[in-house]
Each structure stands twice: as C-alpha cells, then as structure tokens.
Amino acid sequence: MSFSKEKTLDYLIGFAFVLAMIGLATWSGDIETIMPELGPLTTGLWIYHNREWMSHPENVFLGPSVAALIGFLVNMLTISYGLKVFVTIALILLLLRLMNSPLAPSFATGLLPVLTNASHWSYIFTVLGFTLILAIAVVLRHHPGKGPERTPMSLKHMAIYLVASLVWILAVWLAGKGQMAGIPPVMVVFFEVLQKPGYNAKIAARQVIALTGAAAIGVFIHLFAAPWLLAAAISLPLVFLLLTALRIKLPAAYAFPVLALVLPQAMFKMLPLTTVLAASFFLGITVAYRKLARAPELVSKNE
C-alpha cells in the first residue's frame, strides 16, 4: 500500500485530532470526555473519504450525537445491563433508519455510556463538540456534494440485527459474562457488513483478525504505557500497521486503542477474548445469511 504526501498528512492530522481529545481528557482529569469512536469517524471521513458518510455532513453531527444522548438516557433507567444494551441498540437502529443514515459509528457513541456507566454530561458535550468539528471539516475540505439517494436499511436486515443482538446478549448473560453484551466496534462492523451483498467468509476472517488484533494492541499497550496519551500515541500507529498488513480498510478497528482506556477493569481484561467471540458470532451470522440469500440464485442458474 503506497502513500502520497497528502495521504500521509491526512493520517498525521487524523491521529493528532484523536490525541488532542485524549490530551484534553488528561488535562481535565475527566475520563468521560474520551470518545473512542472519534478514531473511526476521523479515519472514515478524513483519511478514507467514505463518500456515503461525507455526502451528508449533517448526519456526521446528528447521528452520533443523538445516539450518545439515547445511550446516556437509557443508562439512567433502572433495568438490567443487558436490557440497557438491547434497548440502546434498538433505538439507534430506528434512529439510523429514520435518518436514512449509514453512519454505523453511531452505535458506538450510543453504547459507550451504557458500557462505562457514564453519569456526567461532559461525555455528551464531547460528542457534540468533536462531531461538529468533523462535520465542519467535511464541508470545508472534502465535501463531495450530495450523493445518490440511499435506500434505508430493510426491515429484514433490521430484524436480523436485532435478533442476533438479542441472542448474543442472552447467551453471555446465561454464561455469567453479562459485561460482554455489547462491544461497540463489533456492532458497528456488523451493521456495515450486513448490508453488503458480496460479503463472504474470507472478508469476515480478515475482519475478525483485525478487530481482535486491534483489541489486543489496545489492552497490551495500555498495560505497559499507563498514561492515556502515551498509550494512544503508541497503539494507533500499531493498528494502522496491522490493517496495512491485512490490506483492509476498517475504521472501527481504530476505536480499540481508545476504548481500552475507558472500559471498566473487568471488561478491559476480557476485551480481546470478548472481541474474537463477538466478531466471530456476528460476522459469522452475516456470512451464513449471505450464503442462504445466494442459494436460490445458484439453483436457478444450474437449472
């Protein structure tokens, strides 16, 4: 994978933007001002120039911000942790359909307040501030104009997403590992790939390796480089090298170096294992679904 000077500069600016957020959190001493999904959002918009995301800059601000508010408010309810995760997922799925938005990182900004039991509005203000900056940056620098009309996520795909999420939440609850109910980067990738007709086992395997590897990097570096800023400064380039070696573009992987900084201790220790299990489950379901969906086409061709 070759890089022009412009592409290299994009990476440096993107990483600097994420590190600035962590620096702000370090200065303020408020861990709830850390937004892990800023990494994937910045990568997708500023580095990969994801046209679907960029064609509607207002959604870059509204989707993650409203989702964060949803998760924050759901976390205040006196219901079980697993139910909080499911309700948050369902409401964000509905939000993205109503907005006709493909901005999957909204799941991560919504789930984080539940995972970390956020109790201060500083998290909401962080999401509002940084997504607004990203939306303005898209308008000023990369905005490609309105893209083609996007078809909303089908009700069938929404049902698959919700049923798979419910099955996973119930499975980890029965296993006595309820804290594994929602891993934001995995839920983001699941939303994205579920709508890709050409998705297959080869792609899924590389994505499972990428997500698990990024989670392991985030945990390992944080264990040996305790300061938030130093840990992120080391782990973000390592995730970049991992994705380059695998030859895939996966913005969600860039959430793990920052996610490892904010997770409760019990979840932090289990993050790599939880990630490989969750990614294998959700992406495996997508592969199986795509095979079943293609089966009638293969039969008709043979006939």
TrEMBL record:
<keyword id="KW-1133">Transmembrane helix</keyword>
<feature type="transmembrane region" description="Helical">
    <location>
        <begin position="12"/>
        <end position="29"/>
    </location>
</feature>
<feature type="transmembrane region" description="Helical">
    <location>
        <begin position="160"/>
        <end position="183"/>
    </location>
</feature>
<dbReference type="Pfam" id="PF04982">
    <property type="entry name" value="TM_HPP"/>
</dbReference>
<feature type="transmembrane region" description="Helical">
    <location>
        <begin position="85"/>
        <end position="108"/>
    </location>
</feature>
<feature type="transmembrane region" description="Helical">
    <location>
        <begin position="270"/>
        <end position="289"/>
    </location>
</feature>
<protein>
    <submittedName>
        <fullName>HPP family protein</fullName>
    </submittedName>
</protein>
<feature type="domain" description="HPP transmembrane region">
    <location>
        <begin position="12"/>
        <end position="142"/>
    </location>
</feature>
<keyword id="KW-0472">Membrane</keyword>
<dbReference type="InterPro" id="IPR058581">
    <property type="entry name" value="TM_HPP"/>
</dbReference>
<keyword id="KW-0812">Transmembrane</keyword>
<feature type="transmembrane region" description="Helical">
    <location>
        <begin position="228"/>
        <end position="250"/>
    </location>
</feature>
<feature type="transmembrane region" description="Helical">
    <location>
        <begin position="60"/>
        <end position="78"/>
    </location>
</feature>
<feature type="transmembrane region" description="Helical">
    <location>
        <begin position="120"/>
        <end position="140"/>
    </location>
</feature>
<feature type="transmembrane region" description="Helical">
    <location>
        <begin position="203"/>
        <end position="221"/>
    </location>
</feature>
